[in-house]
Amino acid sequence: MERKRKSLRTVLLDKLKESFSSVIPVAALVAILCMTSFVELSRREACTFAIATLFLILGIALFNLGADLSMTPMGEYIGTGLSKSRRLLILLAVSFVMGVFITVAEPDLSVLASQVRNVIDSTLLTVTIGIGVGFFLLLGVMKIVWQKDQASLLLLFYLMIFAMVALLFERGKSAFLPLAFDSGGVTTGPITVPFIMALGVGIAGSAGGKNSQENSFGLVALCSVGPVLAMLILPLFSNEAITYEVPKYALEANLWMTLWKTALENLREVAVALFLIVFFFLVLQFTILKISRQSLIQIFAGLIYTLSGLVIFLTAVTIGYMPIGYKLGHDLAAENGKLAVAFSFVLGMVTVLAEPAIHVLNRQVEEVTDGNVGRLQMMIALSIGVGLSVGMSALRVQLGFSILYYLIPGYLLSLTLSFFVPKLYTAIAFDSGGVASGPLTSSFVLPMIVGVCVALRGGDAVLEGAFGMVAMVAMTPLIAIQLLGFRAVVAKQTRDKAAMRHIFSAEDAEVIYFEWED
Predict the structure, then answer these.
(1) Does residue 2 have a pLDDT over 50?
(2) How far is residue 351's CA from residue 173's CA, in Å, rounded to a whole number?
(3) Read out DSSP for 439-494?
(4) Is 513 exposed, middle or buried (0-12, 13-18, 19+ CB in 10 A)?
(5) Taking the model in full, what pTM does it have?
(6) What is the spatial distance between Cα 490 and Cα 115, in angstroms, rounded to a whole number?
(7) Residue 268 CB-half CA count within 13 A
(8) Cβ atoms 310, 270 nearer than 8 A
(9) Which site in 298, 299, 445, 480 is 20 to 30 Å from 243, CA atoms measured?
């Protein structure tokens, strides 16, 4: 028992080191900026941000440990167990229900809902997006079982999305578009990604056929499409005018009282959401899965770490990172719009390092591809992609054009690349797009872009001008990762051509002739 406790302490220490190295670049960037004349933080604001940073490091570490012990094994057990049972209808029904439940539990969806509750009711938003995720998780499972092509499906669904976009323009409700596209990014966060990716690995291992490696990816990508379509359909059934008011991004007077109150609220929300997942998992355990007692103990221990980590994480971003992010964006843009764009690019590059689900994705990608796609390659591609997306979002706020001028060419390029790169890269790319837009993006970077928009164009332009940034973060990694695959294809072709030239240019002296003797 002592050996197990020591091993657990060692693992937790490793997680703390990993989260420290992820969060510190963001905190250091903010600290350096505050030493300049562009942004000034009061002593109370600086102390709040420092305390929030410490909580953030602890929260990410506990969550990552919990995801390894609970969410990932649960997904694998469900995927493998139901696939082996050969009960397709049960597998599809479970996929839909779990898709809805994990969406309800997703923290970044809660963060987004809190920022747009005066546009759409939070419950309606959550239920609509949950149904979208559940239905497309069901479709994703069918794709794995029947071994359908990922690129063709994505092309079909994105054509449907842009057809709905045209319909909203015709109805005069284009202001809702950025929020609809953002909903696809916030649903694939720290709870959803470990579970869905592990579910895909489990199903593909049992029913994925000879291309099980490729089929294990792609569920996250499809689950990012569902909420967008669902949210695009929603305004068609409402005749009310869409209005938006900038939420209050400000530090409370009593820090410790606010900290305690926020922690209790987050504890209640996360506990209820996780309870739904646990309850449904127990039903499956007693009816179909029947995994060992030791595995169950590990899963429940991991759920405690997951609960603790998410509560601490959400509390940190609510009390410190959201108000400071808004202030940074507002003050920078008021001082110099071009500087706000440059800072947004750098902040996007380092923020992706602190997203909990990124590390889960990178580790699973490295394992599934046997090291062919390394963590460093993935992280560099994601950092550059997210940096560009945040910087381009700040530029769009400054120039005031529609988000569609980014999204339509971007998705056309990414979908075109999907027909020229290895299918494994395409599946990884579309999964990474949803993963990159995690809770720190919606709770720190989005308020910063809102601050930029308020300073440059006023609060009335926020819904159409600032929102859509999460969708940008979800889109640019698609192109970046597929470019890695395209480079791998070109490099292989170059090596093959060089080898053939070497063979054909060999001198006669190097050729050995054999003659038969009678």
Answers:
(1) no
(2) 32
(3) HHIIIIIHHHHHHHHHHHH-GGGHHHHTTTHHHHHHHHHHHHHHHHHHHHHHHHHH
(4) exposed
(5) 0.83
(6) 44
(7) 5
(8) yes
(9) 445
